[in-house]
Amino acid sequence: GSPVGAAIWYPADAGSAVTPPMTTLDYRLLPFARRPTAVERETFEADEAAALPVWRHIGVVELTDAQALASLRTGGIAVRGAPPRAGRSPVVVVLGGAYLATTAEWLASHGFLVVAPVRFTDRVNEVGTTEFSWYLESAVRDAEFVLSTVQDDPRADMRSVAAIGHGGGGMQAMLLAMRNRRV
User: Fold this and answer.
1) Are strands 4-9 and 89-95 parallel, antiparallel or unpaired?
2) pTM over 0.85
3) Beta carbons within 8 Å of 157's beta carbon, 6+ residues apart
4) pLDDT, tens only, 47-59
5) Under a CB-based contact definition with an 8 Å cutoff, are residues 160 and 91 in contact?
């Protein structure tokens, strides 16, 4: 299997950012095992932009190719490496992929420590070839790993833990909560 890590959003000290905010494309590049070259990044961005107008689950509004590309380059409010605000925060585990990055940013800006499992791979193609039950079990175990890892984070208030998901991530969140009384 691929190594598992965590994307973490946290309440940051206001006004401390000196780097640009994360973009939608930055979030989509998180699962790469190594930082893509400029050519690989451009190719991935072009592939993602071409796919967005035909992915009906992305939204109900049709996108042009130019709008799809602009959406990938849109920045949110999260800044990589921003200094954290002092204190502990309730934890939210986010499941279902990069689609909830905006939600994670919003939750962190409202005082939550948000974590999401990230499975690193060199593959650029997201299309799975394994059966769904294996994928679902693997995703829940990734979430359990991330939850066990974040319990040692001094920013995490483990007395208050929630799980949310998008699409199949909703089922993953439910299974995580069923298996772990802390959630």
Assistant:
1) unpaired
2) no
3) 88, 89, 90, 91, 113
4) 989 888 887 655 5
5) yes
